Amino acid sequence: MIIILFCRRIFVSCVIICGQTCKHVFLWLVEPEKHPDFWKEWAQRTLKNALTLQDLNKNVAKNIILFLGDGMGVPTVTAARILKGQMSGQSGEETQLEMDKFPYVALSKTYNTNAQVPDSAGTATAYLCGVKANEGTVGVSAAAVRSQCNTTQGNEVTSILKWAKDAGKSVGIVTTTRVNHATPSAAYAHCVDRDWYSDGDMPTEALQSGCKDIARQLFENIPDIDVIMGGGRRNMYPRNTPDVEYPGDKKHNGTRKDGRNLVGDSGEKSFHKGYYAWNRKDLLSLNPNNVDYLLGLFEPADLPYELERNKETDPSLTEMVDVAIKILRKNERGFYLLVEGGRIDHGHHEGKAKQALHEAVEMDRAITRADLLTSIYDTLTVVTADHSHVFSFGGYTPRGNSIFGLAPTVSDIDQKPFTSILYGNGPGFKLVNSTRENVSTVDYEQNNYQAQSAVPLRMETHGGEDVAIFSKGPMAHLLHGVQEQHYIPHVMAYAACIGQNKDHCRTNSGSPSLSHISPTLALLLAVKWLLC
């Protein structure tokens, strides 16, 4: 109030002394958006920055990072941007997410080979293995049929994580879901059913036919994945084994029928400097310089939503990413890191938009942290989603309206208010006395409020529209236009000179390309060539 009164006094004095010119200057300082020059100068700054992008970054990517926002469609990105701003006391719309700062943006077509609206397993196979696949399957081609074990063999496809490991890079997986959930599992598993988390989830016929559960494949398919962090403890232990954190809760007990302790088995490896952590304190007490391998399983199943996270026992996504990069970057050959903000998807499925959007904001914090720990000159960073959701926000809300708030007018049909955020289908469909629920009678801004939906479903569904791809770093310009989702790992591999994309990394004579070595070495090679 004091500041406002002070400004008013300055404004009055200014007008008396200087007239209309000073009035315009004052408005420029206090309400810049009302002055045309504000927008013109903003556009000119953006234009100058865009012109710098004409000098393409064609370096070899020593490091490659993929941030995957599960279910993070474009409406979710926009709403998360507004939420981030409003959490900082701003109106929100003008805020920038970290991914908004990336210089290149493209669109990804997300369909599965047998589905117009995809699931997270088939899409993960696309953006990790470079091959489109059927819904519900991970790490296998479209020739494999969901739940049919005998269609696995011969149809396996490998991922960019394996390509990077084979090239001598360190590799890591960080997720807020189970480490054997759909997204991370496509990085290492070959399974015709995404729900085969442990052998306790598999039909007897599949086990007898030799198919392996996903948890087992995590430790057997690609030996020595350097960093693995997320949830999923119960799938690693024998059936009825009490959980270390919730020993009295039987729903968290081990699920394995084969009697194996996969965590113990991995701990018996002879690798140097290997650690296991099951809580935040253990994780943050580690010195990354003394850790070569890390297995962190922080919950029996998925990690809790960020809004419900126990900050004493569960690390945030940002904290996990921080530790992961500090371990992986010690490798002079670089690293590949897959990071999944997996519970964005879960929040939307439950119709809990507030949970979903806070998960997206947390993932953006993790992207910011990764940016501080890496360099755009040798690190290709890609941010994308596997699919969208039937989530939207609208209703002609005014600038600065709470993203979780009401539209400014009531419905002209039933004369009731409605929230800006709505779902096309899902659990938020509610009738009271045979009419739509009056949302003004409930707390629509509470964490677990289920936004209203048009069609009643126990779980809200995915959306089928294209999703965004944000990229920066070496060869990021190759992610442009509208692309098939399976194109993504091929670009990342090309940038890093791994997998099948190596020919461009050498000149026709077989010597290393000068663009991929230090300027000093390039000069020495040039002098040697001239002298010889």
Structure description:
This protein is an alpha/beta fold and 532 residues long. The longest helix is centred in the C-terminal third of the chain and has 21 residues, at 353-373. Residues 1-17, 507-518 and 524-532 have low confidence and may be disordered. It has 16 helices and 17 strands. Strand 5, helix 11 and strand 6 form a beta-alpha-beta unit. Helix 13 (343-349) packs antiparallel against helix 14. It has helices spanning 2-18, 20-30, 36-52, 74-87, 120-129, 160-166, 182-185, 204-208, 214-220, 262-267, 280-284, 317-328, 343-349, 353-373, 487-496, 519-531, and strands at 63-69, 104-109, 170-178, 227-231, 274-277, 293-297, 335-341, 379-385, 388-389, 391-393, 421-426, 431-432, 435-436, 453-456, 462-463, 467-472, 482-484. The protein folds into 2 domains: 57-390 and 464-500, 3-Layer(aba) Sandwich (Alkaline Phosphatase, subunit A), CATH 3.40.720.10; 392-460, no CATH class. The chain has a 10-stranded mixed β-sheet, with helices on both faces.
Helix/strand/pairing category: alpha/beta
Structural shape: globular
Q: Termini, distance in Å?
A: 79 Å
Spatial strand order of the main sheet: 5-6-4-3-7-1-8-16-2-17
Supply Rg: 26 Å
DSSP summary, beta strand count: 17
- CATH fold naming of the largest domain: Alkaline Phosphatase, subunit A
CATH class of the largest domain: Alpha Beta
Average of pLDDT: 91
Strand content: 15-25%
What is the percent of helical residues? 25-40%
CATH homologous superfamily caption of the largest domain:
Alkaline Phosphatase, subunit A
Number of domains: 2
Low-confidence stretches: 1-17, 507-518, 524-532
